[in-house]
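Lay summary. Proteins are chains of building blocks that fold into shapes, and those shapes determine what they do. In this project we predict the shape from the chain. Here is one chain we studied, written as its sequence of building blocks.
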Amino acid sequence: MENTLSGLQRMLQTAGADIQRQLKVKSRDVTFPEVVAGFFHAIDWTEPLVLAICAWHCFTIALAVASRQHTWTHAALFTLLCIQVLVAEQLNVLGQAHWKDIATQNYFDSNGVFISVVMSLPTVIILLGMLIHMVKTAGDLLVEAKVAELKAKKRASGSSTEAAGETMLDADASAPKARSRRK
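And here is the predicted shape, written in a compact code that computers can read:
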């Protein structure tokens, strides 16, 4: 009986040491580049779902560049892309429920890492580019409006001094006539 107990104790001690050793190995610090590399290696970049998302991003970039001179179209695209980012969580839930229909592996975890990194992050970068363009356009329009305002002011002040000068000239010209009438 004692042999059995001592044997069990040794097994438990060995198992405990193995568990502690495995925890130390798993809890080692993982660097950010290792995490990123692991993420990109875990994704099958030839999968139709992933290719469709990449094609969607290329399409939105092309549309953003093509619509940059059309303010309302650009603003509508900006709004739609913002809505896409806002509904990413619901898209992730939908993906979790139907991943077998659209992919070969379940990319849609409960934290939404895949949808955030592969879909929302590029969309936010596109939105940032669009926003920078909109701010630049607004600045250019502000400068253009201010220049037009200053030109209009200059014309108005130039014509008012001319008008004032003409009335003074008219008054000076008519003054000798009035004086001559008085005499």
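What the prediction tells us: Residues 178-183 have pLDDT under 50 and may be disordered.
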